[in-house]
C-alpha cells in the first residue's frame, strides 16, 4: 500500500474517539485537518508526539486546523492515554486497520534486525476542501510538530 497522492481527495472515514463517539473526517470540511498516524498509545515516541501536538494546539487553531490522531489502540487505551497526558484533541481508534490501510501507513518495518508489519508514523495535512496537501513520513519525533506548523 502506498501513501495518498498530494492533491488527491482524502479518503473519508468514520472512527470512534475515546468516548465512543463517531468522528467523521468530512465533518471538518472548511478546516485544515492535521491527520497523524502513530503506532501505540503511551510509548515514548508516541507520547512525545501527542504532547507536542497538545502543547501547540492553539497555534494550529490559529491557522484554522484541527488535529486528529489515529492508532489501532482500543478506545479504552485511548481514554487512559488522553487522561494521563491531558490530550486536548481527538484520538481515534482503528482496531481493524481499515483507515490505517487506506492511508497507506501499515507497512513493513525493521527494528533491531526484525521485520514486522506496523504503522509507519505519518502526518497528512488535508486542506479545507478535503484534498491531501502534504504527507510527511516522520523520521524524528522531536521537532516534527514544529515542522508541520512551519509548513502551514
Task: Provide the CATH top-level class.
Answer: Alpha Beta
Query: Numbering strands along the chain, what is their spatial order in the largest sheet?
Result: 2-1-5-4-3-8-9
> Architecture, according to CATH?
3-Layer(aba) Sandwich
Envelope shape: globular
Word description of this protein:
The protein has 152 residues and is α+β, with helices and mostly antiparallel strands. It has a single domain, classed as Glutaredoxin, CATH 3.40.30.10. It contains 5 helices and 9 strands; from the N terminus they run βββααβαβαββββα. The protein has helices at residues 44-55, 57-62, 75-85, 98-102, 144-151; strands spanning 14-17, 22-24, 32-37, 65-71, 90-93, 106-111, 114-119, 122-126, 132-137. The strands form 2 sheets. A 7-stranded mixed beta sheet has the order 2-1-5-4-3-8-9. The protein has a two-stranded antiparallel ribbon with strand order 6-7. The protein starts with 13 loop residues before the first strand and ends with a helix.
